[in-house]
Amino acid sequence: MKQLFLLCSLLLFGSSGLAGQDLITRKTGEDIQAIVLEVGANEVKYRKFDNPEGPIYVLLKKEILMIRYKNGSKDVFIESSQAAPLVDPNEDSVIKTTPAKPEEDWENRGAQDARYNYTGARSGAGWVAATNIVLSPLFGLIPAAACSSSEPLPQNLNAPEPELMNKTKYRNAYTQEAHKIKRRAIWTSYGTSSVVWLLLVVIMY
């Protein structure tokens, strides 16, 4: 039993590594799960995460909004004509807010700020993974559905400028984009922990 408990613990804490892909977000809003190979002066080379031995793809940096790396760091790409970004000295290359414009598009700014700042903290993804591994994906489906259906709590949104949340369009766009990120984190956790549960069953039997 001690060996089984130790194995469960190792698999639980290691399950996040199975989802250790880089995430490339294009300016069109498309997300690409990738393994980033090289970030050059004008282009980014990567392989698709679900085909790590496959062909190398190339994207121009001007087509990319942001890259979230598996270690938690981010690179955000903006054109040089835009105003200088505000950078948190405690983080590497992380833009904390979108430069303001004379006629601000609050919906677009809210969605972009959410992509830059909301990390999915306290989303419930950890509980989903634990339930999946300890019980089964059938039981894990219940907290996964419940957590993914609810919007992030206001205190977990990590809005860069809280006063902007008083603007209805900005707040709605920020919250909706954060909800998308939360759902993606939960279902990724559900999928990877289901694989861990299956591996555990195979090892046991």
Walkthrough of the structure:
The protein is an alpha+beta fold and 205 residues long. It has two domains: 2-20 and 104-204, no CATH class; 21-69, SH3 type barrels (Roll). The protein contains five helices and six strands; from the N terminus they run αββββββαααα. A six-stranded antiparallel β-sheet has the order 4-3-2-1-5-6, with no helix packed on it. The radius of gyration is 19 Å and the shape is flat. Mean pLDDT is 79; it is low at 1-18 and 80-96.
Write the layout of secondary structure elements.
Blueprint: H1 2-18, E1 22-26, E2 31-39, E3 43-48, E4 57-60, E5 64-68, E6 74-76, H2 106-117, H3 125-134, H4 137-149, H5 168-204
Antiparallel strand pairs: 1-2, 1-5, 2-3, 3-4, 5-6
Helix pairs in contact: 1-3, 1-5, 2-5, 3-4, 3-5, 4-5
Gist of the model:
The chain has 205 residues and is of the alpha+beta class. 43% of the residues lie in helices and 16% in strands.
Q: How many domains, in number, for the residues?
A: 2
Q: Mean of residue pLDDT?
A: 79
Distance between the termini: 14 Å
Strand order of the largest sheet: 4-3-2-1-5-6
Q: How much beta, percentage-wise?
A: 15-25%
**What is the percent of helical residues?**
40-55%
Number of strands: 6
From the alpha-carbon coordinates, what is the Rg to the nearest angstrom?
A: 19 Å
Query: What is the molecular shape?
Result: flat
What structural class do the secondary elements suggest?
alpha+beta
Please give the largest β-sheet: 6 strands, antiparallel
- Total helical segments: 5
SSE order: HEEEEEEHHHH
Features:
205 residues; SH3 type barrels; 6-stranded antiparallel sheet; flat; disordered N terminus
